[in-house]
Amino acid sequence: MAREDVSLLEALREDLGVRSVKDGCSPQGQCGCCTVLVDGAPRVSCVTPLRRVAGRSVTTAAGLIDPVGNALVDAFAAHGASQCGFCTPGILCRLAVLPEQPSAAQVENALLAHLCRCTGWRSILDAARMSRRPCDAPDGHAPGSTRATLEGGTEQRIGPGSVLGQGDFADDTAPPGCLVAVPRADADLDALLGPDGWSVGATLSDARAGAGKVQGRRSGQPLSWPVAVPPGEWDITLQTTWVEPGYLEPDASWCEPGGPPASPVANGGAFGAKTESPAPVAARMLADHLGRSVRVLLSREDVVRFGPKRPPAGAGIRLDGDGHLTLGRTRANSVQKAVICTSFCTQSVETIWVDVAGPPTSRSIRAAGWAEAAVLVAAAEARAAGTTTATVRTDEGAVAEAAVEVDPTGWPSRVRVEVDAGEPLDEVVLRSYVQGAAHMALGWVCSEGIAVDEEGRPTDLTIRSFGILRAKDTPPIDVTVRTAEGRPAVRVSDAAFAAVAAATWLAQGLPSRWPTMRGTRR
Questions:
Q1: What is the rounded distance in angstroms from the CA atom of residue 499 to the CA atom of residue 437?
Q2: SS3 content of the chain, % helix, strand, coil (to 5)
Q3: How many CB atoms lie within 10 A of CB 192?
Q4: Distance CA 182, CA 179 (A)
Q5: 3-state SS class at 239
Q6: pLDDT at 336
Q7: pLDDT tens, residue by residue, 223-266
């Protein structure tokens, strides 16, 4: 029997065990992952009190068994419109009520209530507009899953099951009867290493009540650029700020006493940001300490407080390719110094790490350090050649060339990416990952950043404050896949990420600070 004093989301997941409804930011109501249909109308369930739906019909993505729902699922799989699958159940519910042949504007407006970090939106727009057509969408076919695993950095499944959120996410697989543990409001990273840093309860509501849950807010505080441009005579300079990885599945794990903890990385790699997640360590520690199975859940606010950020940078480069890159390192960085040699002929960028006050940072986040160096060299090469096309190569042999058009305000209006990833394996999946990398690159250059206070603590705790591009702000992203000629498959999304970032920067005239246009798209 569901409790009446909880949200519809908590009743569905915690009381009724409906796992197709996902919790990405509750109770912020900003990511759309928990969207369901109430009497046929989309409703964000994390901000809907259960008492308000008494006697009404509630439909989740798992209940979309009508022809429209089935066609949407097949279209998402066939168009590569779902990768990890965490956000798509909510998106399916939102799109299921659109007209039979929706316009691009109708789809974009519907998606304003959602965030998707993986796909770059364009494949979702294509799938939504073609969802009434028959689609061939085999579940988990090997070439596509192999390409997805290669690009995502961890084992990944694709197909209709993934679209419906059946990716074996850690919190979805916890056995019944687990205690629930969440970080205490006054905990820091050190406190999370012991039981005193956690509030444990029989239910999620109990655990959060005992923790004094931190509520998300958007501070309005300006961004900061803590790493100075290195001294020298540079043709191009750049400063970046703290960037939140923005993966939608918050860290989670569960463990039985003496057993192995569930991985917080299920059907997607979280862009490397969960490599040092506290969730599995805490789940094992608490299960052994309490002698009971324990679920560990981080809220969106906890992820922002404790999760690693893309490190801020200060850099300079000359047109001959010689440059210097300084990256900010906080307690999560154990590397004292690194020299990253790029793959551009004999040119190299010396890279060092310096200590700064701020939130945790990590080299594990998508190509951190390497991508910054690659962007610098690609921009210098293009500027020296008098072009705005950026080319990035990896040591494994992946190549990405990107060109970006901008409108009169400087906002990207079209992206063109050509990639050589060796054997494509599955061109639909490959395009989806390249589009996702391009979307992240556009945000990195134009809009993304997170404010921190004087002590280096994040002050923007809502998922919408990160600056992730919405569907309607994301330009068309055209991807061309080169013929492989029998060469082995290699990961190309990192190269695409760096190439699109460099091309966007070039098209905007190489402004010295990123994000370049924060606040211009609302």
A1: 10
A2: 30, 15, 50
A3: 22
A4: 10
A5: strand
A6: 32
A7: 999 999 999 999 999 999 999 999 999 999 999 999 999 999 98
141 — pLDDT class (breaks 50, 70, 90): low
pLDDT for 159 beyond 90:
no
Lookup: tokens for 371:
């991508």
- Domains, the chain, in order of start with CATH, read 8-166 (3.10.20.30), 171-213+251-298 (no CATH), 313-507 (3.30.365.10)
Q: Check: pTM over 0.85? Answer yes or no.
A: yes
Q: 509: exposed, middle or buried (C-beta count within 10 Å: 0-12, 13-18, 19+)?
A: exposed
Element housing 160 (H / E)? helix 160-163
Amino acid at 104: A
Burial 328-353 (b: 16+ CB within 10 A, else e): bbbebbeeeeeebebbbeebbbbbeb
Per the structure block, which two tokens stand in for 212?
């004094």
Among the listed ranges 23-37, 206-220, 437-451, 463-477, which one has the minimum average pLDDT value? 206-220
Per-residue exposure over 278-305, b if at least 16 CB sit within 10 Å of its own CB, e if not: bbbbbbbbbbbeeeebbbbbbbbbbbbb
Say how far apart CA 356 and CA 276 lie, in whole Å: 20
Q: What is the pLDDT of residues 10-38, one digit of tens each?
A: 999 999 999 999 999 999 999 999 999 99
Backbone phi and psi for residue 283, each to the nearest 5 degrees, phi listed first: -60, -45
pLDDT range class, residue 70, cuts 50, 70, 90: confident
Nearest-CA neighbor of 89 among 16, 149, 25, 167? 167
Residue with tokens 């850099």: 315
Q: Identify the CA nearest to 446 among candidates 467, 418, 464.
A: 467
Residue with tokens 């060469």: 487
Q: How far is CA 490 from the centre of its chain?
A: 21
CB 247 within 8 A of CB 167: no
Token readout for 125 is 């727009």
Confidence of residue 330 (pLDDT cuts 50, 70, 90): confident
Handedness of CA 440, 446, 448, 452 (dihedral sign): positive
Beta bridge partners of 295: 180, 254
* Three-class SS state of 76: helix
Q: What does the block give as tokens for 28?
A: 């912020």
CA distance 353 to 48: 46
Phi, psi of 323 (to 5 degrees): -155, 180
C-alpha to C-alpha distances, 186 to 72, 110, 302, 489, nearest whole angstrom: 44, 38, 11, 47
